[in-house]
Amino acid sequence: SGIDFNLTANYNGFNTTMYNRGCGSSTCEGVAILKMLHSNREIGCVMLGPSCTYATFQLVDDEIGLSLSIPVISAGSFGLSCNYKSKLTRILPPARKISDLLIHFVGEVLPFKPKWQNAYVYRKSVEDTTEDCFWYINALEAASANFARNVTRQMLRTEDSLRDVLTTTQRHSNIFILCGSPNDVVSVKSKLTSPIIEETLFILLDVY
After folding, report:
1. Which SUPFAM superfamilies does this chain map to (predicted)?
2. How many other C-beta atoms can be found within 10 angstroms of the C-beta atom of residue 117?
3. Are residues 37 and 43 in contact, defined by beta-carbon separation less than 8 angstroms?
4. Which residues have CB under 8 Å from 150's CB, separation 6+?
5. In angstroms, what is the C-alpha Rg of the chain?
């Protein structure tokens, strides 16, 4: 027979403007909410959120975080710092899994591709990128992370740099990894003054 139980949800929203730090300050509110629930004996069996990597890390890290007695389920917390935390479950693909997927794909020999060793990684400005794309590209850029140790990647941090490399024959690789939407690729190509080399391949991380 199945399990018979009732689940009651207690909703507490985060208002990060109280601390004037946005995402990072949600740690402060998370702690405040947990203290209030503990005092009222309403702590429950699981905590949903926060989704901010900075906030989640400070809640679940074994060394600097809280001594949580309940698990945390997060629809975010993509960053590498939140890897392998015993009390954390991330329901969306974290940066580590995206990085590992690319490492295996680049290294595979398939009917339509040889093994690749080099790649360009394009990082958009912080103002123009989403939370998930920020952490996905961060995982590919970090010198100490798995991707940088397995793939010789060169970072492109401006759209001008990307356009310059796309139109030259003297380049590091024909593989360009970027995160965003198809419109980002269309936008870059529309601003080129000369044609792109036919062997060019875009790998677009468009997860959501």
Report:
1. Periplasmic binding protein-like I (SSF53822)
2. 13
3. yes
4. 103, 106, 107
5. 21
CATH architecture, domain 95-206: 3-Layer(aba) Sandwich (3.40)
CB 105, CB 163: distance < 8 Å: no
Q: What is the pTM of this model?
A: 0.84
9-49 confidence digits (pLDDT tens) = 777 665 555 555 556 556 676 677 777 777 888 777 888 87
β-pairing verdict for 201-205 and 175-179:
parallel
Q: Under a CB-based contact definition with an 8 Å cutoff, are residues 205 and 98 in contact?
A: yes
pLDDT in tens, 107-149: 999 998 999 999 999 999 888 888 899 999 999 999 999 999 9
In the chain, what are the domain boundaries? 25-90, 95-206
